[in-house]
Structures are given as structure tokens and as C-alpha cells.
């Protein structure tokens, strides 16, 4: 009886997501992906402190736009490794803009607990999906001084030698 109950629970746990996937309930279609070489769409967003910024404020600067979530372990590890990579290459003149998918309170706590020293913004208008066409976190967009996408990475990436990889 116990084996039958366990089998039934496993069927439910595994079967329902597979059924929903087959039926298309998890399909998320994002039209018009942003590709390398494209001009980055104009955007505005609020910093953690309430300051409003625009993509136009960063013309003339190379910047890395990082979409993350405070409850994402890969995001935390990515941010830690990003700090380490940038500390090793202090000659890089690059601005890092972190864009949180969480609310202001949770993001502020995360930034304080993890000693994040990058500029942090809140994705209140779903900028990542609407303008940058991504649903994967972390997502990295490297943008040149003319507002052109140079490179992008979706998800956590490691180099072969186990070092952190985004761009540097």
C-alpha cells in the first residue's frame, strides 16, 4: 500500500507539470528578441533610493545591465563572481546597473546583506520582458557607449577553468 501511495504521489508531482507543458500552459512567447548589434530600447527606471534614470543618461559610457532576482541562488553567485571579476580588472571603465525583479523592500535587504556596491534599480514596469525580451535570470546585457548591444548572456555561465564568464 505504501509503495502504491508513493507511486501515485510521484505520478502527480511529475505528471501534472508534463501535462501542462504538453498542453502549452508554460509556453511564453517573446516576440522581437533583442540581438547583438541592435540599438538598446530607451528605458527609464527608479533606483533603490528613488532616483529616476534613463538609458540616455548612459550614452557615452559602456555599461552592463544585469536583471536578477533576490531569491535566485544563481543570481547571487553571479553577482559575487561579477564583483570578483571586476576587482581583478580595475582598468575596465564599465558601469554596472543591477535591475531587481523583486520589490523595493526585499531588494534593499538583499543589497545590504550581500554588500552589493553596484547601482541597483527596481524593474517595476517589467522592463526585462517588455523591452529586453528576456524571462531568464540572471540576464546580462553589455551595451556600448552608443547604446548598441555588444553581447548578452542569459543564465549562469562558467568558463572551462571554472571562472566566472560574463564578458571579462
Structure, described:
The protein is built from four helices and seven strands. It has 168 residues and is of the alpha/beta class. The chain has two domains: 30 residues; 124 residues, Glutaredoxin (3-Layer(aba) Sandwich). Strand 1 and strand 2 form a beta hairpin. The protein is globular. It starts with a helix and ends in a 14-residue tail after the last strand. About 7% of the residues have low confidence.
Q: Keywords, please?
A:
168 residues, alpha/beta, Glutaredoxin, 2 domains, seven-stranded mixed sheet, 7 strands, globular
| CATH H-tier superfamily of the largest domain | Glutaredoxin
Order of helices and strands: HEEEHEHEHEE
Largest sheet: 7 strands, mixed
How far is the first residue's CA from the last residue's CA?
A: 56 Å
CATH class term of the largest domain? Alpha Beta
Domain count: the total is 2
Q: Count the DSSP helices.
A: 4
- CATH topology of the largest domain, by name, is Glutaredoxin
Q: Count the E strands.
A: 7
- Poorly predicted runs of 5 or more residues: 20-30
Question: Mean of residue pLDDT?
Answer: 80
Helix content: 25-40%
Whole-angstrom Rg: 19 Å
Structural class: alpha/beta
Large-scale geometry: globular
Beta-strand share of residues: 15-25%
Amino acid at each position: 500500500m505504501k509503495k502504491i501511495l508513493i507511486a501515485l504521489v510521484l505520478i502527480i508531482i511529475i505528471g501534472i507539470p508534463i501535462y501542462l507543458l504538453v498542453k502549452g500552459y508554460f509556453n511564453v512567447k517573446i516576440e522581437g528578441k533583442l540581438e547583438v548589434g541592435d540599438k538598446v530600447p530607451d528605458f527609464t527606471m527608479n533606483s533603490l533610493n528613488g532616483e529616476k534614470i534613463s538609458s540616455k543618461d548612459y550614452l557615452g559610457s559602456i555599461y552592463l545591465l544585469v536583471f536578477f532576482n533576490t531569491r535566485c541562488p544563481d543570481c547571487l553567485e553571479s553577482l559575487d563572481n561579477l564583483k570578483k571579476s571586476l576587482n581583478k580588472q580595475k582598468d575596465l571603465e564599465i558601469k554596472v546597473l543591477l535591475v531587481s525583479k523583486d520589490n523595493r523592500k526585499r531588494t534593499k535587504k538583499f543589497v545590504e546583506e550581500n554588500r552589493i556596491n553596484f547601482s541597483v534599480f527596481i524593474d517595476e514596469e517589467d522592463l526585462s520582458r517588455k523591452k529586453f525580451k528576456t524571462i531568464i535570470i540572471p540576464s546580462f546585457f553589455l551595451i556600448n557607449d552608443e547604446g548598441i548591444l555588444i553581447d548578452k548572456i542569459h543564465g549562469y555561465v562558467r568558463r572551462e577553468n571554472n571562472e566566472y564568464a560574463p564578458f571579462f
